[in-house]
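anyone seen this seq b4? input:
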Amino acid sequence: MNLPDTLLGDGWYWAAWVVWAPLFARSLFKAPWGRLGDSGQLNVWLGMIVLLTLVWSLQAGVKPGLSMHLLGATVFTLSFGPYLAFVGLSLVLLATSLNGGVGLFAYAINALLMAGVGVLLSQTLYRLVVRFLPRHFFIYVFVNGFFAAALTVIGVGFVAALLLVVAGAYEWDYLATEYLPYFLLLGFSEAWLSGMLMTLFVIYRPHWVCTFDDASYLANK
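predicted toks r here
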């Protein structure tokens, strides 16, 4: 998922900066920063950034742009909402980039893929679950925490693969057989980790999760 500086043409990288910059500015403006006024919430937000920086630094891959790692976008989005999640994941990528994990020129396009697509898919799946499924504790944990996390990381991998094909970096047949199948395994790992964390959060620290409400998910169930 981490694209290097030289894999795509310069136009792709500059276009990504043009798209990412206003999205990041909008997230900064609309993010509920007042929530982080509580020291406990701030510590959790910063702790997620530090933890995911370590996780994103542990990546596997054999060819440029074909690396993969756990994402954490679903946990971040469910806990803090899309705007704080997008800002937080962008900071995670910045720390990873400065540590030599990816190139700085490719920062914007990587941020759009991992933070942008990751948060978009997580938030969209959450809204679909809220709209079409009953509000129940186990639905929240298993559908939002487990399955949405798996679908999100698989979706990010699919979008990244499409970008590589459209940009002419790799052939679709190669990615479909040698790259994308591994995202099914990564999706299982992402689902297990995200589901476990969200279960612990909503049981022991429900105030850490902005999308979970005891009155809606537990009362009279």
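The chain has one domain: 10-217. The chain has a mean pLDDT of 93. kinda curious what u guys think
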